[in-house]
From TrEMBL:
Identification of the protein by name: Thioredoxin
Superkingdom field: Archaea
SUPFAM superfamilies tied to this protein: Thioredoxin-like
Organism: Halonotius roseus
Gene3D superfamilies named among the record's database cross-references: Glutaredoxin (3.40.30.10)
């Protein structure tokens, strides 16, 4: 099942100075795991821009995994992978490479989801490049 809120926002363009961070989303063989709810106001506000940023970066749909969640009366979230990944707030985006978590966005930040994750992935990519190789 797909999250409707992940449909790319019409007319979205990266903000000045964020292009490198957004390009970092496509620079590795990352899988993007997105928890959200089409009923959730935070998701409605943030996920369309994230979907557009992933499309802009050229991230293939088969690398984007949607996990629709529901909110219980006590405020807890239920749905696929919620317990396994420790999801408490939405939207949550977990980025994995080779099955290992390399970045996570939870609910809100000062910058959009794509920029927050892109900066984290840029730092991770720089650390990989600086690490000594297996010679």
């Amino acid at each position: 099942m797909r999250l409707e809120t992940m449909e790319p926002a019409d007319g979205w363009e990266p903000e000045p100075g964020t292009e490198a961070a957004i390009d970092a989303l496509a620079a590795g063989d990352y899988a993007f795991h997105v928890w959200g709810g089409d009923w959730c106001i935070d998701c409605q506000q943030q996920l369309p821009a994230f979907g557009a940023a992933l499309a802009h970066a050229g991230v293939d749909d088969d690398r984007i995994h949607h996990y629709p969640t529901e909110k219980e009366d006590d405020g807890s979230k239920t749905g696929p992978g919620v317990e396994e990944y420790g999801i408490e707030y939405i939207p949550t985006v977990v980025v994995e490479r080779d099955g290992e978590e390399v970045a996570r966005f939870v609910e809100s930040a000062e910058e959009p989801i794509a920029v927050t994750l892109g900066r984290a992935l840029s730092a991770e990519q720089a650390a990989d490049e600086a690490a000594p190789g297996d010679d």
